[in-house]
Amino acid sequence: MSLDLSVRLASLSLRNPTVLASGILGISASLARRIEAAGAGAFTTKTVTREPRRGYFNPVFVELEHGYLNAIGLSNPGIDYFKKELEEMKRTVKIPVILSVGGSAPEEIEYVARQGAEAGVDALELNVSCPHVKGMGLEMGDNAETVREIVKRVKAAVGEKPVFVK
Question: Can you tell me the distance from the alpha carbon of 162 to that of 107, in angstroms, rounded to the nearest whole number?
């Protein structure tokens, strides 16, 4: 007997409610395939920005007495490069692919989201909560009017695709 764990997340159908959170495993189509094979219901990419970002110098990950702490600095190759990875992900995995989008201005976030939609992603996550990169994430997420503008612009750019605000 098999247990049906399928769920709906907005308009997405997931085989189970396990979704890879945005982070260091969400950087390539080959890792997306491994995450799918491991049983995830959906795959969220690492946060991607318009331009490439080097991020912080090591160490970016440290072990503490009761857990771990990381501050990567939103390192990523930029959407123009990453779009090719997104297209390969969509060709090679069956689970939904969610693009995590970052940026320092509403128009930058809109551009990245549009590129992701063109690559075929199933949904978008707007990263307006990253607390440690100056001018991005939480600095925008703390302003309700800015978040409203970002969501409005992204929804206009990506149509019916689900948009999640993080």
Answer: 19
